[in-house]
Design brief:
The chain is α/β, with parallel strands linked by helices and about 210 residues long. It has one domain. It is about 45% helix and about 10% strand. The strands form three sheets. A three-stranded mixed β-sheet has the order 2-1-3, covered by helices on one side. A three-stranded mixed β-sheet has the order 5-4-6, covered by helices on one side. Strands 7-8 form a two-stranded antiparallel ribbon. A hairpin with a 5-residue loop joins strand 7 and strand 8. The protein is globular and about 45 Å long.
């Protein structure tokens, strides 16, 4: 259940809260991937396919915690970005948004196609139904259906960006709830670990709905 008072909302966005949420959203996907590699009896490529192959962003939150996902550059992975509460450029933010959505999609895709998972609705419920914006990164690569908004630059104070953050948190909650309810996976604490405990901030979207903890 979301808190009564939102930490991030369209009428007030603090960069420190944004960076903390970016860190939490990133570590949630990373934690889920590690957990799934151990829990899915048929597939063990969640970390390699959805984390290592996609992310190259270093994020440091306001507590000094750092997540360093992949520091190498290649023809498909853009140059390294370093993000902290005092240094968050629009270019770095847009690249991180693109990579985060790509990672979410890859986790959902792998789940839907794994023989070790009973459900096959992860893309439909945790990705397609929720992440309805298109993101264009600095290389011109696009991800998303653009049924709501297209990001080719980011206004951190804008309602569209806060709505995107709301959707990202909502996607993590939806994904973890489905994982907990899957009949084949053994673990039932995905939501407790990687949504409830790992995302302590609450986001309010432009419609007044809240998500988070």
């Amino acid at each position: 259940m979301a808190a009564i008072n939102a930490d991030i909302k369209p009428t007030g966005v603090n960069q420190r809260d944004v960076v903390d949420l970016m860190y939490d959203l990133t570590t949630s996907l990373q934690g889920l991937a590690v957990k799934l590699d151990a829990d899915d009896a048929a597939v063990s490529t969640y970390v390699s396919g959805a984390i290592t192959a996609i992310f190259n962003v270093v994020i440091t939150d306001t507590k000094g915690n750092t997540v360093n996902l992949a520091g190498t550059e290649s023809s498909t992975v853009a140059p390294l970005y370093i993000i902290n509460p005092y240094g968050l450029t629009n270019e770095a933010l847009l690249e991180w948004m693109y990579q985060w959505v790509a990672s979410l999609y890859q986790i959902c895709y792998t789940l839907d196609n794994s023989a070790g998972v009973a459900l096959t609705t992860f893309i439909a419920n945790a990705y397609t139904a929720i992440m309805t914006d298109k993101i264009v990164n600095r290389r011109g690569q696009t991800i998303g259906a653009s049924t709501t908004f297209t990001f080719n630059s980011v206004d951190k104070r804008g309602g569209a960006f806060v709505d995107w953050l709301y959707d990202a948190v909502n996607a993590v909650e939806t994904l973890t709830e489905q994982l907990d309810g899957d009949a084949t996976l053994t673990d039932t604490n995905y939501e407790a670990l990687w949504f409830t405990a790992n995302i302590p901030l609450t986001v309010e979207n432009s419609a007044g709905s809240r998500v988070g903890n």
